[in-house]
Design goal:
178 residues; mainly alpha; 0% strand
């Protein structure tokens, strides 16, 4: 005359006690599942997705830095004669470097703003495409400003070597270049 139950639900007074109650029941031989297990699994999946996206972002950042450095190198090569004339006219080496670094900073900031605008556009499209999943896109102001400034910083760092090269061009060599 035993009553057999397939399952039982146990409610805990505080979420901090879930793991403790779960352990007690498991030690008594019961199979235990909780929503905390599901939450932890979701957290791990989210961390894994963030790591993959972070890796893709890092590779993109590296490729962008190479592109900016290449663009600045080409700009300097095309403007070698101009650099030589500026040096002959008395422009300081640091002013020439500042000119190229300012150009790179503007390229980086423009790219950062363009990326931000693309993010806003995708932030409007993605929730519509996945409306049944309740996805929202949130853009914190600090993160947006930091992203644009970071793009400018990466551009500056990528242009540093080409700018140093421009500073080291001798005026005679630069003027003879066609």
């Amino acid at each position: 005359n035993y009553i057999v139950y397939n399952s039982a639900e146990v409610f805990v007074d505080d979420m901090e006690h879930v793991a403790q109650v779960q352990k007690i029941l498991a030690d008594k031989g019961y199979q235990v599942n909780s929503q905390m297990d599901w939450l932890e699994s979701s957290r791990q999946q989210s961390n894994m997705v963030q790591a993959v996206l972070g890796g893709i972002g890092a590779v993109s950042l590296f490729v962008a830095a190479i592109g900016i450095a290449n663009t600045m190198m080409m700009s300097i090569n095309e403007r070698t004669r101009e650099v030589g004339i500026l040096k002959v006219m008395g422009m300081e080496f640091s002013d020439i470097a500042r000119m190229f670094l300012t150009e790179a900073l503007l390229v980086g900031l423009t790219g950062g703003v363009a990326g931000l605008l693309l993010s806003f556009l995708m932030g409007r499209i993605i929730p519509v495409l996945f409306a049944d999943q309740g996805i929202r896109c949130i853009f914190p102001w600090l993160l947006m400003a930091g992203g644009v400034l970071f793009a400018g910083l990466v551009a500056l760092l990528a242009a540093w070597i080409p700018a140093k090269r421009a500073m080291n061009i001798s005026p005679n060599e630069a003027i003879r270049t066609e």
